[in-house]
User: Fold these one by one.
Assistant:
Number 1:
Amino acid sequence: MDKLAAEYFYLVAIAAIGAIQAAAAYNGLNGISFFRQKVFNYLFALLTVGATLARLFTWNQRNPVGIIEGAQQFSFFMLALVVAIAFTLAVSSLLRHSALQGNHPQHNGLEALREITFFQALWRRYIHKQ
Amino acid sequence: MITFDQNLFLWINGLAGKFPPADWLLRGIANDYLAIVSASLVLLVLWLWGSQAGQREKNQKAVVTAALSLGISQGFVNLSNSFFVRTRPFSELDANVLFYQPTDSSFPSNSAAIVFAVAFAILLFNRRVGIYLLILACLHGFSRIYVGIHYPLDIVGGAAFGGFTALLSYGMIRLGAPLLAYLMALARKLYLA
């Protein structure tokens, strides 16, 4: 992975993690939020997405002839998105495990992640069936 | 038509270099990554957005349509580039170039096609978010002319490609509703939708 592609990958991954936190906090998806208090989620999102967009804004000033070829850009974007989603699901499941442990979700799909974490949801559905 | 396009380019690009803060701002917006990544982040947020399951489902349908539209638009741009190559304005005219000089075809604007494809697709489902994305697409398109790397017609062409592929994707999503419903149900079982 060359330097520019690596920077692009990191920026997209960080921004995606921040964007998920903002959306999760606003829509009450506690199971994928990193923090118990919404304000910290918003602050985290503001810092990560803001810093990333600022870096992208100045991209051509920092790299006057530096571009990433289209297909490579698409591949790194998709990879960064997958990494961001996996990171969010894993970290939120660890951080919020004890706080959401006793809950019993009434819904399926993403709606269930209002009350339990992703790992708890998978555990209940596929391993310890309830 | 071509003369009008060149004259309009010269007028817009002629504004470059006169007001440094505007040059700085539009050079940042013109780059290949900012508008595309911003639009993609909006799609990611929209996937999770909705106070009720029904609202979220509609948003997720919009995201799938936008992603399909983006992919098809790239296919059309590549197809167009293999039949028709238009020289960049800085190679033909006395332009103020504030950006690196791309070597691929000027028509249609690839990045404009992407952002317009996403914006029009979202507009079909969510008017407010669609309008925000259209503003972003227009600003990005204008900035590409301002910095001297596209003619106005390249941006209009990109927007037309984007609009057409959005409608095409919308039709495909309606036709493939059973398949989409199956895939969404699968994603719901994995708590991803």
Note: The interface with chain A takes residues 27-34, 37-38, 40-41, 44-45, 47-51, 53, 56, 74, 99-100, 102, 110, 187-193 of chain B (CB under 8 Å).
Number 2:
Amino acid sequence: MSAFIIKRLLWGIPTLLVILLLCFLLLDHSPGKTVDTYMSNNFEGVKSMENVEEYEYYYIQSVKKLGLDKPAFYFTLTNRAMLDTIGRITFLPKKTQAEKLSATSGNKKAVGEYFHTIDYLLNQVRRLTDTVFVQKNELTRELYNAKKDADYSEKLEQISQTIDDKNIASQLKNLLEQQKYFARNKPSASLLIPAIKWNGTDNRFHLMLTRLFSGEKNISLIDSRPVWLKIRESLRFTLAINLLAFILSVFVSYKLAIWLSMNAGRRVARSVNSLMFVLYTMPAFWVGSMLLMFFSSSTYGSMLNWFPPGGVGDIGQGDNFFEIVGIRLHHYLLPVICISYPVIVFLTTHLKDSIKDASGNQWAVTARAKGLSEVSTIKRHVLRNAIFPYITLLGNIIPSIFAGSVIMEVLFNIPGMGRLAYQSIISRDWPVLFNIILISGIITVLAQILTDILYAWLDPRINTGK
Amino acid sequence: MKKTPFNPIFLLLLLLVFPFCKSEKKVQVDVVTVRLESDPDRLNPMLSSVGFATDVFRYMFYPLVDIDPATLELKPVLVTNLPVKSTVKGGENDGLTSYEFEILPEAKWDNGSDITANDFIFTLKAVFNPAVGAERWRALLSFIKDVKIDEKNSKKFKVVTTEDYFLSDPILGSVNIYPEYLYDPNKLLRTFSIADLVNREKSAQLTDDPKLKQFAESFTDAKYSRDPKFVSGAGPYILTEWQTGQQLVLEKKQNWWGDKLAGKYPMLTAYPQKLVFRIIPDETAMMGFLRDGSLDVAGSISPSQYNNLNGDAQITSKYNIFTPTVLQYYYFAMNNKDAILSDVKVRKAIAHLMDLDGAIGLLDGLGERITGPFHPSKPYYNHNLKPVPFDMNTATTLLDEAGWKDTDKDGIRDKVINGKPTKLSVTISFGANSDIGKKLSLMLQENGKKAGIDFVLDSREMSQVMGDVKAGKFQMSPLKNRLDPLPDDPFNSWHSATATGGGGNRVGYSNPEADKIIEKIRTEYNVAERNKLYEKFQEILYNDQPVVFLFAPKEPVIISKKFPDAKPTIIKPGFTLNYFH
């Protein structure tokens, strides 16, 4: 048995890694260029951004701040035509341009020379005296445009004809020739030959993994607080609510299923069945808002104003244990009901059906024939056989309870993990996000293992050795 | 024997719950409870990047000067008067512009020490420390060259700047001052001069300096962002409690120095003893708290929720509902470099196709028509210009004049452009999640059909739409623009110099006459003269119609009747709590 558990736990590790990798890739490829969003959030309307050089400076700073100056994974899949130094370009518009030029020409050397000419020109222009200030500004702006867009520039042509500095004029002509060359060119065959570039461990995925398991550096990007502290703060509410919901669901569904099977056919059981069907068809978030409306305000009479409108309650300084439990339960009751009622209906229906299937078996008939009461037949004989599908379901509902609690956390204003996850997605706080993914992954894996163990323990026929 | 399916445990649970059922709350007038949509990231003005943080720390940290939310005028906060501008004579900074500030003699930190020029310089050093993540502030203040403290008065100083710009003084004054004794107890930054730190080359050499790094690490640490013992500014309130996801509590400082001055300097008014910010992200949850009476103020309410509020007697009996316009405007961007839309007659015709009274109807009356890029509450908004009316006849006449005729009788106009027969078909790109954008686009498509324009709707993820708009790869797009309470500087959005290479002039508008006026606005310090320039500029834009200006939205704010004198403001989030009493 212990070998079985260890084996299952070990299998959990690669499973979690794959989950993390998939989430990382999805997040990395989600639309919306992070740097652009960051730039427009932080630098929109800032006057110094009118200066193209300042813009590039702050752009590169932002890229570094967001950690996007590093490659995404241990290797990059590219093609033979691509500029070798492409991974080192941090100014993303320039990178896009380099990719475009490499792809249209297939000539790495020419692409490298093109950017070299621009950088050389920018340096020369910087040295120009202020007497030609307007022209200098215009030229700088055009050169930066050339970095981002290769299309042949008429303005550069005009400037190259009027500028006094001979060196700059000749280099400008050179640049214009290069632009024309790229405009003429057809894609080359080297584009089709794949190339793998090895990035080593200095990549974003590796950084994410190491930070995830390092204590000190595992801090939120948004408020610099330790990630585990943030998660602990919110996890306690989520765990408390989900645990209560889970216990309530298992307890009620177990009892209810037995009661329903014993009273099958009676009018009262039929009514309960129909009621469950109606409940099951009602979406939980709607039931939640109805409960809030009826029982947490005086809209329908102050007699019904029993519960707080949300939150987890304020714990005073001098409150004792029972007061704290009381305040919390008072706030938790409505969300717990909303999370658990669909689960109760679901579990009850399944357990009831499998009891019904099992009670038709010959050994159940024998038990009854021996003179055992219906209660003892079901409890001692039928249930042991009918319980297996129920246990499988239990393992599966744990993750789904967690998923379902996200919407309840929003509705009942509970600062739990669901809300934290949502916020960290919105603010791209990936250290927090990946820790949450890891935790929910662990919960799912553990729930599955627990199911297997329960299964093996209840049914000796299951061989855990293999 | 039949057993009930429920155990007595449940009865016990219920018994536990009922003693805590609600009793009526006592009305506390000196406490204001406000809804906050989300936790602030940090209560550290230089490092925070979330608006919710500003909504809280604005009561804790005070700048030198600020915009009065009621009048939108610049007023002194921590200083005796608005800054005095002068030109430096002699020395290395000869000819540069400088601004002189004098901090109020009464102004003191929590430990009783004076707020001095040194604290201002310390704050700037923190901003310009290359290891501190305050990039936005560094970019914003990049025109600072040096700060000189008055030899006789440690509260008086001159800021030397590299450029002559009409918004320099409000930008300089907007810096929230930090107490050096609290944020740099070891005086690590004293080693460096402000002139060195603001200099790009010199500060680049200092990037790896251990003292700068040590300061940055400590300044960025969570304790300086949320620990009540370590977060404090010159304002009247101090953080006393922060329960993540639940609430933040600010309490009034005892014997705050500003109380005595509030008569003379109204910006120093601070009535409530306690401000409670309750974190309630969801609007439906917020409604519960409002009905319950456990909130006093709530802003950022969506138009759909606004209707629910108005019809709810429980809410209207306890609260006043206001609808101030916010500093934003909606417009239909048109690519002025596009072959079809470069014709001013076509642009004007499209403007006449906007059935905007209908569109404001879409917003449930929560919008005010505008004619230009400035907010109607600004003193220089040109009220002589009338909103372009919805007029099908004028639209068709303009299109006829522009040479667009339906020659092939397919219901869509056409014309030969550069030898190519072209259909009058315009693509509107809008964000799939933008309800207003979608409604406006559909309305235009419907009216376009009658006028012979084929509007093709292209709905995508908003960041993709914005990416295309920034790159100039679009025809039309309904967008929204944020405005500033400061006087407007139209350069970034409308000057031809920013019309290329990802600049702020995304629609590619270019008019040499407008360019000249925009440049003049930036150096005109005489308010009356500048206002004339603003009006002229609006006139030019109105005639060119580079975009269709739509409306300034109104955003409902609800305030408890406990505070009968409280008024909403047009500056976000729509209220200023220190005036509530």
Note: The longest helix of chain A spans residues 321-359.
Number 3:
Amino acid sequence: MDTLIIEKIQKEIEKFEPTTDLEKVGRVVRVGDGVAEIEGLENAVMSEMVLFDDSGDKSLEEAMSSKEALYGLVLNLEEDAVKAVVLGDVERVQEGMLVKSTGRVLSIPVGESLLGRVVNTLAEPLDGKGPIESDSYAPIERDAYGVIDRKSVDTPIHTGIKAIDAMVPIGRGQRELIIGDRFTGKTTVAIDAILNQKNEPEDTRPICIYVAVGQKESKTARIVAQLEEAGAMDYTVVVSASAAAPAALQFLAPFSGATIGEYFMDRGRDALVIYDDLSKQAVAYRQLSLLLRRPPGREAYPGDIFYLHSRLLERAAKLSDEKGGGSLTALPIIETQEGDVSSYIPTNVISITDGQIFLDAGLFNKGTRPAIDVGNSVSRVGSSAQTKAMKAVGGSIRIELAQFRELEAFMQFAQDLDEATKKRIDSGRRMAELLKQRNGEPLPFEKQVVSIYAGINGLFAGIKVEDVTTAEGKWLEYIDGQHSDVLKEIHSTGKLEDATTEKIDSAMEDFKKTHTDLFSTDEE
Amino acid sequence: MPVEYAHALSRSLENAANSSEAEAHVDELVAVLKREGKMRALPAILRELERLQAREYAQKPTLTVTKESDSQKALKELGNHLRSVPEVEIQTDERLVGGWRYTDGDTLVDASYKTALLQLYRRVTTL
């Protein structure tokens, strides 16, 4: 055995002092469905952690071989009893078991040691890479920063997805909802946003936290593998409360994610937290509330379901310079049924967030991916969260696309179209094709600028619609190879100066001459 | 429903002056159940009553030691923790390994070797 470990153990034994203080305890009188009813604990407070002492009826050897300490969270303070949700294997809890008060609210370890790790709601490791060593603990429930401590959102966070960064830009400290039916690419948008942070310089790169609530473990494993392969796990923490986890852990997981992000925000850094998804968190909270006999409201959700999401999302903020200037950006995900954004939970969360990215199943099935419905998507922060370069090229796209969608519908009925309309439809088709993007391939913002600039200035006008994506790839390769100074300029200044646009125009001309095979007669 | 009846009967029995009054309370309960056609609830009421009695018993001041001969020393040490030591029931449990353990309703003082060793073990195994 390693002598270092032996020395550590010896030191622990030497400084160990068993505690024999008077403790306030309760006893479990009823347990079922993850909720334990406890008699006693008169001084218990709301959200206090309690410890279930399952060593009482066991010998020392049996107690040592059982698993880690089992905690509960007090959620109901009633006249004669306290109800606590069991944060672990409820089968270990028995009637008559002693329950000890810990005197502290639920806290988790936070810090740099969590980076690259996959943990559960209580920040216990799930990846088999050893224990999490941390000196800092933070409560998972915390008041959000007040108005005075905040600053306006003014710095973009780039997702690497052209359609979003150009038309629905997200800023650091914003809450932008990703909403859509199942299998419309919501998680893909979120993961691409994490992957794209690799393109940010290390000193300004946000720490990413992906919270998987009620997801299949296979899906979470696939996401972790994708992040590891791309080298994104170095700056990412994954918090997982899978579908097999108790409802209490599923309901608390997003709060743990926010707590981990706040550690970095409080130290002047930027963090991005993705809640995938809050619909499942709402369902878990509904289950718990019904088991705690709280009165059900609309759709059987408890009366404070709005507060559940509002207090979580309010913790995202852009802090003032006096507070360090850090930020926590939130990308909550909500799953709709049959595209119904007017149902209870979606409308709640839409009213809380600073905008939404609506993913349409119809667009997805037609092959438009990411399937962003531009008409229903908005960013309330808007161009304040865009670089000047992106603002210059992105301004007109939204209107053009919206007009194209209307004309596309009109086209199905009209037979003879005037030239101007045909031209607009043609341009719109190419723009829509240009905005398509493969998943897992986020683009740095300077390449997005150059790509969209080329699109709105007619580079792809002479190309068949179905070849636009290929042509765009070749254009970016060309710019990267022959005119990388243009990309560096846009990246460092964030602006599109006149001199830069002249270089791009010249590059476009050269590109057309050297890639004549791409430019053929367009088909209607 | 059986829980409420059991709690009500338990409170009545506590206030009963003698055994005949206690029997009268039980007869009244049976009469009420017969009248309302709820005699089937009687076994559940009895189970809940047993549970309540077990709970009450657990709430009595209890001092657990590993062997009888340790009880005097344990009582003396207990006096250091409580303002006044109530009348306790002494129980033995070898699984404590050594030391003693006192419970009284919602109060616990645990000076057993088992708990101390378990704390040390958990601390060392998280290194």
Note: The first helix of chain A runs from residue 3 to 15.
Number 4:
Amino acid sequence: MGLIKKVPVYAERIPGGGIVATQLESLLSHSQACSMWYLLFATACCAIELMCTGASRYDFDRLGMIFRPTPRQADLIIAAGTITKKMAPRLRRLYDQMAEPRYVIAMGGCTVKGGPFYYDSYAVEKGIDHIIPVDVFIPGCPPRPESLLEGCLHLQKKIKSQKLGDWHEK
Amino acid sequence: MAELRTEEFQVNMGPHHPSTHGVCRLVLTMDGEKVVAVEPVIGYLHRAIEKICENRTYPQCSPMMDRFEYVTAMSSDYVYALAVEKLAQLEVPERAEYLRVIMLELNRIASHLIFWGVTAMDIGAYTPFLYGLREREDIIDLFEMTCGQRLTYNYIRIGGVSRDIPKEFEPKCRAFIKKLRGKFSDYEGLLNENPIWLARTKGIGVLTPETAISYGASGPVLRASGIDYDLRRDDPYSIYDKFDFAIPTQKTGDCYDRFIQRLDEMKESLKIIEQALDGLPEGEIKAKVKPKFKPPEGEVYSRIESARGEMGAYVRSDGTTKPVRVKLRGSSYNHLALVPEICTDVLIADLVAIFATLDIIMPEVDR
Amino acid sequence: MTKEELKDKVLNLSQGMLTYSDSGVFDLMFEVKPENLTKAAVLLRDHEELRFDFMNNITGVDTGEHFEVVYSLASLSNKTRLDFKVVLPYEGAKLESLCEVWKAANWHEREIWELYGIDFTGHPNLTRFLLPDDWDQGHPMRKDWDAPDFVRMPEL
């Protein structure tokens, strides 16, 4: 038992094949972290960087991340771009429509704290963290695709470290 | 047989919909699969850039312009710089003008590549998206080595450009031109004669020249309807009158023509870049502009031909360090107003094709 | 056609409806009285020597003393351009809509109505446009506009 606690996957060869013993917890979180389907919630400039990340050079798919057009199929919102006061209720609704467990990445300065539109703007929501809970913030205006990939790796780390039923209490 | 009773119903397309290129909501009145009426609802990306500019000094406004139209951020930087230069009657060094033209045209190609890929993706072909963005990355590399940014360049400033190009820019740019020329046959082979593509775009969303003019359509949309009008030739700004390039036009103004139009324009842009690289003079790259820069009192409307059409900036000064009013005119604004006009009695799938080929992006509409 | 020729032509043809204003720095700028707006617009669009068939832009301006509405026009056939503006007082700012003359005016007017509170008579659809549907804080582009959560950039 002690061994399994330390090493999440424990393989043993037996005649005629092998068995893999692991904790249900690490199996679940590992498979969850490696297939994060994200909701294409792209509003402004960061959308183009999100597209670039999904396209040929940066290849998002290798992290198991494929975009979904509908929140019902998505595990993750990448909120890319400015969220205005008019858009904020829609973001909340899309988040509510997602199935648990769900995660949020706030991409770009606007979603962190309003970005360049913090001052003098009557229409911009100053940060999305008071609309929906955010797991990873990625600053930048816009962040490079590498930053986005880094943010996703951080989220993977977070998912892998969570205990069974953690998201249930969220 | 008794006639089937049908009832019209409403469908909301957006504000979060993958094929509306941003956050536009279309309220569709449908009769079965047919769209009876469209009402665009906008403002989901209204960030009050114009209000922000009223409390910034003139040089401080220019980063805002990148966010106004981020797909061709060079154009929006330039249209604002041009307006302020006209206000203050600033002389821009010749080398700066050449650099600007090179960047503007590269940016136009980058934008058209996105258009080409995304339109195809909307209509159902995924490969062009990957091809288009692959070539676009080469342009982004050129921008990045020049100004350090991938998307919001803030390169074209009032009075010139922010920095000179590095030594390796020219060979890399020439190599890119050669590479892209070779790719056009791939691009054309993929879609241009594909029967599914033709069925989805030919004869769909026809825009007559009269409607186009009265709604203020411009750029590739106007030229695809057969009107030979390009600000680079007809109201020359910068040093476009020194270059030799053709202005392609199409005949019918349907989705297919708008699609082909942009492919043709990319080829002409490559010619301009080549000529500009050949003639690039030595010299200064920026006129002297103080941080507390005060243009004289007055008002000006400047306009340029961006990748989507006419982009304009109205700037009004009262002689202080901050503008009284900055108004930005994006061509997508007028193109989106066209949608209710040309999208009646089409199928909902065709609506996506029409929306995509008008190349509407929302920040230009909402600002 | 040079700018001087165009200026003379417009001034002659309009018979006093359009007057020259020297605030335009680069292109020609004219001024129109609110009551002559539609007549002047139709003249600019339809006269065969002017043919301003293309509406570029309409801008609302709050100068701090009064409102101005600036119309930017272009002619595709003659390759010319001009601007004209209408000066309006703060109280009861009202203008005729030009939707019938140029269809492009529709959305521009709607935006000015919302952000400045200038009324356009005869406009087919003056409803909420850029701002949220439940917006109740007035016309934000006015210079004297303020709201509790509106943060001004501090002077450095």
Note: The longest helix of chain A spans residues 145-160.
